[in-house]
Fold this protein.
Amino acid sequence: MSEKSFLGVTIHYIDGIKPVACNLAVRELKSNHTAQYIADSLKESFTDWNIELTKIRAIVTDNVTDTMKEVQQSLQKELNKRFGLIEMNTHIAIATLLDPRFKNIHFRDLHACGRAIQKLKDIVKSDIAATSSESDEEQSVLYDFWQHHKELVHTKKKRKSNKESDELSLYLSGPVCNFKSNPLEEWEDMKYVFPSLYKQARSFLVMVASSVPCERLFSKAGAIVCKTRNRLSSKHLQKLIFLSGLSEK
């Protein structure tokens, strides 16, 4: 004999000062125990007893393993779909490293973390090299009186490059800041300790992580171009949107 599944429904309410409990239904479940199917079965039970959904304060269930498992799998699938490879995004990874509230503590993929750290090191070194080359004078002579001086400068630059690498290691090995702190304010306090990283932090932390500002822009444009102002030129619309985005300060 095959086993059958049933859904039991009880109701609980207060009559004066006395709690009352009643058994409403025991419904046979003839399909897979999905969240939607169980919800529909409950609604049918409520309809049979003319119980309005607005009068139901809460629904308490036992450990519905299949339903919970289905919800969990669905959430994991959607999260992996959208954020599964987020650590491999160079800009996001470096911005996370340069956020003193997080640094590298939340990376799950060690390869992605190491890749981001190396990329940040390369950016810092490249920036130092570009700054140094701009200050050097290019000379093309047969005999260079300052050759020895240039060799000493080159040695100093190599030491400085190693120092920048140590700067990143020192920064990552330090404790993270309070979660509610402002990362830009924290970097203002650290800019003399980590000058090279400070410059990169200003560059990466300015990036917006969402398209919401642009969506708000279109929403504001739609509010401005209403039926009574539908003949506004694009030039005037642009000016109105710009002015509406300015702060009172």
